[in-house]
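FAQ: What does a ligand-bound record look like?

Like this one, built around 1-deoxynojirimycin:
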Amino acid sequence: MRHIKLLLLTLLVCGFWSCNQGGAVPPTSLTSPNEQIKIDFLLTEEGQPAYAVSFKGKTVVDTSTLGFDLRDMPALGKGMEIQTVDVSQFSETWEMPWGEQREVINNYKQMTVSLKETAAPNRMLNIIFKAYDDGIGFRYDFPAQAGLDTLIIMDELTQFQMTGDHRTWWHPADWDCYELQYYDTKISEIDTTGKKGDNTAGFTPEHAVNTPFTMKTSDGVYLSIHEANLTDYAGMTAKVDTANLLFTSDLVASRRYGWSVKRAVPFQTPWRTIQIADRAGDLIESNLIVNLNEPSVIEDMSWFEPTKYMGIWWEMHLGLNTWKYEGGQHGATTERAKTLIDYCAEKGFGAILVEGWNTGWERWIGFPDREGVFDFVTPYPDYDLKEVVRYGKEKGVGIIMHHETSAATQTYDKMRDSAFRMMQELGIRSVKTGYVGPIQPEGEYHHGQYMVNHYRRVLKDGAKYQVAINAHEPIKATGIRRTYPNAIAREGVRGQEFNAWANDGGNKTSHLPTVAFTRLLGGPLDYTPGAFLRKLEDFGKGHGRKLNDLNTTIGHEIALYVVINSPIQMICDLPEHIGNHPFLEFIQDVGVNWETTKALDGEPGDYVVIARNERGTDKWFVGAITDETGRDVEVKLDFLEPGKTYNAKIYGDGDNAHYETNPDDYEVSLQGDLTNESTIKLTLAPGGGAAISLLPAGE
Ligand code: NOJ
Ligand code: CA
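The answer part, i.e. the structure of the complex:
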């Protein structure tokens, strides 16, 4: 990995305000390198640290206070004075080993404000701010200090004071589930009552949202609040005070211990982040979240290759066969795996995921005691793991291991070493993990500190055994993939599977146009696209429930291979359902690893148009999707290399396509002689979409 450090400048303002006790301290500020974003730091009348943010001269976050509610000691926040203010600037370019772009510019100004309580117990706290051109980050830093060895945080009291009743795209803060519908309301109308995850016993605090959530001000400024580098800490959700348009951090707690975070001092919290842009697409192109993470600790990632994959998976969700061996409908057989390997080899797909291969599936979902049940090294009798791996190697198709832990974390911690060692011996390079059901030990939640640490241990073990992790029911993505590039993707969204069996119907038509500007700002997503069969209702019985229909067209589906950022993309449907559909050709052609990404157009919740250039080639791919409103979109090809001529193949909606009445209607068309001065006009049906492959003429 390449690190080019360009500039490091430090200015130390020592003790400047230390005599300024009593009364508010005037703001001290930091601007972004392009000077459009400004952070003001101040102390309130009560000596409490606070900040405000402006963009192009207008306040976008009004005075917001900072602090902590602690156990066994007074709250931390009021009665502080500034000791020092330290300002520096930093710039580097680093390289993503895989991902949505190759080179990332990391250019920011930093301000560290050192604070101390003026009265006993005279605790010290530093607040570190970073201002980038695409947003800001700040974190709390607890320095080593006498009398403060351990901190038990009941809650963090970070405010985000909004300046108006913005339109907001948000996801309820279920402490166990990150797989809910998104909502599009004003801040004053956020209401999470009763909005729990399907498949979860999780706790949903009243009127709290999970991050990232995105807002648009009446001046057309886009803001997205999230966190970066969530390490040894609890996930941050945001409680909403609808009357005062105020969000306050609400950390996921442990019911087992009655607190949110326990840490030895010194330590630093994750970054609290605010992405800021006046073009919605700039949120997608922003690198703020990864830049606020540490450089990679894995020297060589060449063992992981981005790929497309199929699976013995969707058939279980459609109710055609089962994960469990008992009952005579077992899906994961040697024979079925080989058939799928043959299909992938023929079509050029790199891997297959096999769920239900190992013993334990007779006692997973719904069983209160799940520790010691799943075995991650022992296959069922009708699945010859070694033979499947051997056959795959012969055909050039890899195996993606599957570890459903059923959230029995201690068993997985115990068995992981042998499971990963076995994978390394077999040459299996990635695993999809799963954490269905309430966490064991009881009282812990998927998004609390205990689980944040568990998921990190899995990544660390993966780094040791050259195993890449794609977690389902994960902790949200906060850019850890920069430090651990074996964190290749995670589901952690209301994924494709909800289209099969969710009690409240399939995903909304506006789901992915919203996810593109919210969840996907965190990092890669394994949505498992590629459902060719769109009307599932009369098809079969998924989990004994009535199946749903997909609320989008097949044109929308195909565009997801470009819209969704992930180095692994599934083709979830069965070869039998795909048949000779002409859209299969696009999935065969489309890249999974990118030189560069351009978010050309879009509005959260409405539509999005993204273009990506495949790494190491001249090929470009475009994906456009819309919500329930059909619309015409103009794709300006000004991203193409000047002087070069391209041919386009367009896979889109047919004239009569409609997500409700005619989701299968499609059209394939060709356009030639295209240059960087050309424009392609797309007509997207209601719930529709289109994908374009742009290949240099002559290739
Ligand atoms: C639940 C997940 O939602 C699903 O995708 C997966 O197939 C099963 N767990 C088994 O791991
Ligand atoms: Ca909409």
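Follow-up question: can I read anything off the structure? Yes, for example: The chain is about 15% helix and 35% strand.
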